[in-house]
Write a structure and sequence with these properties.
The complex is a heterodimer of chains A (about 110) and B (about 350). Chain A is an alpha+beta fold. Chain A is built from three helices and three strands. Chain A starts with about 35 loop residues before the first helix and ends with a helix. The longest helix of chain B has 15 residues. In chain B, the strands form three sheets. Chain B has a seven-stranded parallel sheet with strand order 3-2-6-1-7-8-9, sandwiched between helices. In chain B, strands 10, 11, 12, 13, 14, 15 and 16 form a seven-stranded antiparallel sheet that branches. In chain B, a hairpin with a 7-residue loop joins strand 11 and strand 12. Classes of the chains: A alpha+beta (about 110), B alpha/beta (about 350).
């Protein structure tokens, strides 16, 4: 259950189950792992933004619980995990995001 | 949260029509060690199965909003597994040690994986142990040439049993084995006549341990080059299937890899038939990655490496996605991932 929005979370995305069932990366708030969990979330945001900027999108962490995905027109949407990031991004830009897309790869090369 | 080790393992037995699934099951279930196994069959076929925990399921599929064929809920399966779980909890049946699901010959195993991994209750009490695919040594080539269902069943397999080897010539069996290895280099291929397989070997070690050992086996990796591209046969109608084997010498950033792979699966998931790998994320042991189309099993962390080689190895089996495109993408993403794909083998299956 998300403490902020009351949403029942029945599924943990596979990327949040890094090592084993004992250490889910982004689900538990306020435990001993809080500092490394926040570092991990901010690391993900930084990496994701390297890709999302090609599409004019930006991801922000929201209170260590959700992510907010925004475009340059002022639209924004809540994102729970990487499972919902890509479909949400696709809805905002109205076209698919593909890691094999040559124009994306060209943008990334310039970094 | 319930750990993977306390969940009841589910084995999926699939294979094309008449490929010997039920014969294999009848043989396996005769073993005393398989007594506390529940068997879910799609239909009662010609080969009679005599087992006290036998249930029939009808393939009732609920297509979800996305319309993706692999992300569908098998409503029948949810109900049957929940019933079994309730009976086990009430001690109405001997303690359940394993569930075997036999699919119909034309079934796609992916919705079964999705059902168990996505259902709010089932995901906490059952885990997918392995997919066993039977391939008929006599008709295997024909089915692979003509039926995309057969190709998919082989691509998603963890173990492939080549059946009817007693009536096929050794040359036919060897040719088929080579083709199956080209198509799915990560699968363990076993030859069997009359369903005679070593049950202890097939169900003994968990698939997680087995895949770790197989992927870390340097000799196995090198043997891929033995089965390079087959010549194109114009009579074949199935889209090209590629298997791509990648190695990373440096540890991978798990977050970055998750970002890349989740994006790839969102965009091209239906054409990524299989992804299987042993990933060095800079910790003491590797992470075992196992996925079928959009569905990724909960990644498992191993306490230690199965061998001396600590390189990440990932195998992709794709349909209609050029391996070079995946390689180019990973090379461009290398500064995000923290590692560069150092070596790769490509097999083209046409």
């Amino acid at each position: 259950m998300c403490v902020l929005c009351g949403e029942a979370l029945t599924h943990i995305h596979w990327t949040d189950r890094r090592a084993d069932e004992r250490t889910t990366v982004s689900m538990f708030v306020g435990d001993d792992q809080q500092r490394s969990r926040m570092r991990d979330r901010l690391h993900l945001v930084r990496l994701a933004n390297q890709i999302l900027c090609h599409y004019g999108l930006q991801l922000h962490d929201w209170s260590g619980s959700k992510y907010i995905l925004s475009d340059r027109k002022g639209n924004s949407a809540l994102v729970q995990d990487l499972g919902s990031l890509w479909p949400t991004a696709e809805k905002l830009i109205h076209r698919p995001l593909d890691p094999l897309d040559p124009s994306l790869l060209e943008t990334l090369i310039t970094y | 949260m319930i750990s993977e080790t306390t969940k009841c393992p589910v084995t999926i037995v699939t294979g094309f029509l008449g490929s010997g699934k039920t014969t294999l099951l009848a043989r396996v279930l005769a073993e005393p060690s398989m007594g506390n196994t529940a068997v879910l069959v799609n239909e009662f076929g010609k080969v009679g199965l005599d087992h006290h925990l036998l249930r029939q399921i009808n393939e009732r599929i609920i297509l979800l909003g996305s319309g993706c064929a692999c992300c569908t809920i098998r409503d029948d399966l949810v109900k049957t597994l929940l019933d079994l779980f309730a009976m086990d909890e009430r001690r109405d049946i001997p303690q359940l040690e394993r569930v075997i699901i036999e699919t119909s010959g034309l079934a796609d195993p992916a919705p079964i994986l999705y059902t168990i991994l996505a259902d709010a209750v089932l995901q906490h009490h059952f885990c997918i142990d392995r997919i066993i695919t039977t391939v008929d040594a006599i008709n295997g080539h024909f089915h692979l040439d003509r039926h995309p269902e057969s190709l998919k069943q082989v691509a998603v397999a963890d173990n492939i049993i080549v059946t009817k080897t007693d009536v096929a010539s050794w040359q036919e069996v060897d040719d088929l084995t080579a083709r199956l290895h080209t198509l799915n280099p990560s699968a363990h291929i076993i030859k069997a006549a009359f369903g005679n397989v070593d049950t202890a070997m097939l169900f003994g070690a968990s698939e997680i341990e087995s895949v770790g050992k197989r992927l870390s086996d340097e000799q196995d990796a090198n043997s891929l080059s033995t089965f390079r591209s087959k010549p194109l046969d114009e009579k074949r109608h199935i889209a090209d299937v590629y298997s791509l084997s990648l190695t990373f010498h440096e540890p991978l950033d798990w977050r970055a890899f998750g970002l890349w792979l989740s994006m790839l699966l969102h965009a091209r998931g239906e054409d990524v038939l299989r992804v299987k790998g042993l990933i060095n994320v800079g910790e003491r042991g590797p992470v075992v990655l196992n996925g079928v189309q959009h569905i990724i099993h909960p990644p498992q962390h191993l306490d230690r490496w199965p061998g001396e080689d600590h390189c990440s190895r990932i195998i992709f089996i794709t349909r209609s996605i050029e391996p070079q495109a995946i390689l180019n993408s990973l090379r461009v993403f290398q500064h995000v991932l923290g590692a560069r794909p150092a070596m790769f083998e490509v097999n083209v299956h046409t």
